[in-house]
Fold this sequence. Notes:
Elements: H1 2-5, H2 14-21, H3 25-37, E1 41-44, E2 50-53, H4 55-58, H5 62-70, H6 91-107, H7 120-127
Antiparallel strand pairs: 1-2
Helix pairs in contact: 2-3, 5-6
Amino acid sequence: MRLAVVGSEDLLTTRQIADSMNVPYTHMAKAIAQLQHLGVIEARRGRNGGLSLTAAGRCTPVGNLVRTLEGDREAVVCEGETPCPLSGACRLRRALREAQEAFYSSLNGVTVGDLVASPTGPILLALGAPPG
Length: 132
């Protein structure tokens, strides 16, 4: 979201984003690497390098992004050393899967670009502003 709110020519570093969002650098670096691999973020190397959101990234549905980043696994895992005797006919497991699909579907109604519409955008910009 932080990259979506800055201009397309304004590049941010991983450190700047991590600091402005109060997230550990190592966690942010891992997330950035995943987003870059997905084509959501572009990284430019060098002295004037940094990160920017791609056009495709701006249009990416949030549900698809969350599903990809989190992995499309079940909300409840019922397998273990002793398999659950209900695993083949469990109504709760099926209901949770349907709820999970509804969650992703709802998030797909919003793109990454939509997330920074007012009033969110100005708040995100203020997070990266130098104190003063």
